[in-house]
Automatic annotation (TrEMBL):
GO terms for biological process: signal peptide processing. This is Signal peptidase, endoplasmic reticulum-type. It comes from Natrinema salifodinae. GO terms for molecular function: serine-type endopeptidase activity. The keyword Membrane applies. Residues 1-32 have a biased composition (Basic and acidic residues).
Amino acid sequence: MDGPDGERTRDRSAPRDGRRGSDWAPSDRHGDPGSAPDAGPRTAADARDRGRVAIEDGPVRWLREADGGPIAAVRDVATSVAIVAVVGLLLFAISGGWPPLVAVESGSMEPHISQSDLVFIVDEGRFADEDAIAGTGVVTLADGRETDHERFGLAGDVVVFVPNGDPTATSVIHRAHFWVEADENWVETKADPAAMNGATCADIASCPAPHDGFVTKGDANRAYDQLPRSGAETTVVKPEWVTGKAMLRVPHLGELRLAFDSIRALSGVGSAAVLVASGAFALVLFAAAGARKP
C-alpha cells in the first residue's frame, strides 16, 4: 500500500536490527547461539568426561572421591566417627580401663579439680610409683609428702572409687590420704586432728578399721570421707573399690559428659542407642547442608 500507512506496514514486516532471517536461531542467555542450557552429566560416561566420579567407577572410589551432595556429607560424618573411634581406642589402650574419662559433678576437690571438669583416669596399676601401697599402685598423701609425689597440687594420688563398694552408688573422686590395716585405730595412729571435726574413734563406724584400705578426703572438704555426714560417707575404701587414678583434667568439658548422661537417664536407653541417635541426627544435618551447597 502506498502512502504513509503503506510505509508503516513495510517497516513492521522488515527486520529492525538484522537479527531475524534465515540464519537466525534462538540463543541461550549464557551460552553459544543455538545451544541448550547445561543439564549436567546424565551418564557415567558424561561424568568421567567432566572429571567427576560415578558409581560405575566402583563404590569405594565413588564414596572416597565424590565431591558434592549427600555422599560427601556421609563421608565427612564417617571420617569424624572414625577419628573419634581411634582416639577412644588410644585412650583405652593408655588407660587400661573404661570409661577413661569421668566428669566431676561436685566441687569437693576444688581448687585443684573443679566441678564440670573432665578427668582422664588410668587403671590404678598403671604408671605406679615405687612408693605406692603394695598391690594397689596408689601413693597416699602421707607417703607422697615424704617422696615428693604430687598429683593436682598436693601430695598423693587422686583416686576414683565406689563408696562402700555399692555398684549402684555414684563414683567419687577424692584424694587417698593414708592406708590403714584391719582393726587399726587410725584416728589415733594416722589421722590429722584438723580433719576429724572433733570426732573420736568411738564416733566413727569404720574405726577401728573393718578391713585394710584407704582413708580418703576431698581437697575442699573439712573432714575425712569416713566420718558421719562428711564427704562420700563411706567406710574405709578397699583397694578393689578403686576404679582408677586421676592423671589430668580438661576444664569445663565435663558438661558434655554430664549432658550425655542426663539424656541417657531421661530417655531410658543405653549409651549405644543415644550415640547412634546422635550420629543419625548429625548425619541429617550434614546431608541437608550438603544439599544446599550451590
